[in-house]
Amino acid sequence: MPLLIKDYTWTQTESMIYITVPLKEARAGKVDILSADEYLKVSAPPFLFEAFLSAAVDDSKSAAKIGDGEIVFTLHKREGAIWEHLVLQNVEKENLQNIRQNAILKAQENALKEAEAKAAKKKANEKYALETIMKIEEDQRKKIEEIKEVERRRAAEELERWKEKQRIEAEHKIAQQKLEAEKRNTNGVKDLPKSDTQTGTKSAQSKKPLVVSLPPPRSAGTIQINFTPRVFPTALRESLVPEEEEWLKKQADARKALNNDLSELKDLTEEEKNPEWLKEKGNKLFASQNYLAAVNAYNLAIKLNNKLPSLFLNRAACHLKLRNLHKAIEDSSRALELLTPPVPDNSESRVKAHIRRGTAFCELELYVEGLQDYDAALKINPHNKAVAADAEKIRQVIQGTVPSS
């Protein structure tokens, strides 16, 4: 049974009440305080202080300070007046019990409101952080695109300058060849017979044909040209080396992974090399609630054939059971990519993919994205009452009309 603290002191003014409660030998870290408009309680095991105030105070403005082996309450009166007594006098136990119970209920309500406000603030902060990260990533992508565009323009300008230089050099070379040919023709023509200065007539017999001495033919030869070996067909000056190196690294990693997969598949039996057989095995394991083994079966089937949407759809269901929510979203999205074009034959599979992805979004508290998938499923099959009911629940959670679960 707790020991009641009775050696407290109190003072008052027209608007304030000051109560000093000694903590005895109790430690401040183990003190529990409950404050309401008409009730005060300090629990410091094995000591207990309890006061049923004679008038109401404003609990929202009141404060309690712990220090120097005591607790000092500063209470604001609701109505300015001098109290004759701090606590109620000659009141039945039943009424005191009601006051105590009401104070506890009010404290629980305040604690619940504070928890809800804290959760809402945390969610808002997480949403703001996510939006900020997405904005930063978008800015980075834009910056990279701008850098690529600048590099592309620079490479194009360099190519145009090189082409112009080649054209000018070619024109200059042709002009030089024409000039040299004209010089050779002039030097190779023999002197023509001069006119007869006395008679002013030329002798027909003295006329001789023009003889032009041509240069000897050029000697044949070969020119050895060495090209830098390159994987890409574009010239080095037109390419972005870091991007090409990254692409080559990804290709090498993909070939390595493929070789590892092929080495794993060599030890399989003929049945295990059949994706359909592995799919049926995964379905049986899923039905027996062995979700990890089912995932392994679907993984092997996908390695053998990654074009079957049902494999990704079934693996998404396993990931949902295992709470691998991001993987469930990825597999559902991959299944939807393979279920194209949308036709009546694959409508049921598309509905399942949307529902499973929407469920994963809701489990991650991304209710807007989840509602979009449920609405997409309803567009495919508007007569599914269960999906419509779930979509309405999600919509109410987003609107805040029901507590989230």
UniProtKB/TrEMBL annotation:
Lineage of origin: Eukaryota, Metazoa, Chordata, Craniata, Vertebrata
Protein known as: Dynein axonemal assembly factor 4
Residue ranges, compositional bias (Polar residues): 195-206
Main location group: other
Gene Ontology cellular-component terms listed: dynein axonemal particle; extracellular region; neuron projection; nucleus
InterPro entries: CS_dom, CS_DYX1C1, Dynein_assembly_factor_4, HSP20-like_chaperone, TPR-like_helical_dom_sf, TPR_rpt
Name of the gene this protein is made from: DNAAF4
TPR repeat windows: 351-384
Keyword Repressor assigned: no
GO BP field: determination of left/right symmetry; epithelial cilium movement involved in extracellular fluid movement; heart development; inner dynein arm assembly; nervous system development; outer dynein arm assembly
Gene3D superfamilies per UniProt: 2.60.40.790, Tetratricopeptide repeat domain
Residue ranges occupied by any CS domain in the UniProt entry: 3-87
GO-annotated molecular function: nuclear estrogen receptor binding
Compartment list: Cell projection, Neuron projection; Dynein axonemal particle; Nucleus
Keywords recorded for this protein, A-Z: Cell projection, Cytoplasm, Neurogenesis, Nucleus, Repeat, TPR repeat
Sequence segments annotated as region (Disordered): 177-215
